[in-house]
Amino acid sequence: MPTFLQNLFRSLADPGQMAEVLEHDLQLATAALLIEMKRADGKLATAEDVALRAALRQEFGLDRLALDALIEEAEAEARDAPGYYAFTHRINDGFSQAQKLRVMEYLWRIALADGHLAAHENHLMRKLADLIHIGHGDYHAAKARARAYLDAQSAAH
């Protein structure tokens, strides 16, 4: 799998690819953070995986094959990353405040998907909110929207 730097060098050779590379990089950074949230409580709940896939599909409009490939690549990136900065830096540089708020809501959906907010999940949520510059009010509003979304999904099934 090509890394971000390999994609960047390729895009310099073909400037038409730059927008595509940057979009994929944002997708990858978002997916990696969502995967980190899924792993935060040490349990791999099906509900968290469903929430992760739904969030990525909703945000980026990916088909099943593209979604599977993105998740596979993001899992490798997250596993090899020394921390969250590489991902949050890309999100801060590439996303508007509204887009960052959606990412925060998606993170909450995963954290709350199994019906229990573990201490590690709560800690990671606060840390990521700080790293992507989400204020206290927006942090709680994203949590409320995520909870309402999950309640609506539960009522529909």
UniProtKB/TrEMBL annotation:
CDD domains: terB_like_2 (cd07313). Coiled coil: none annotated. Residues 27-144 form the Co-chaperone DjlA N-terminal domain. Gene3D superfamilies: TerB-like. This is TerB family tellurite resistance protein. InterPro entries: DjlA_N, TerB-like. It comes from the Bacteria. It holds the Pfam family TerB.
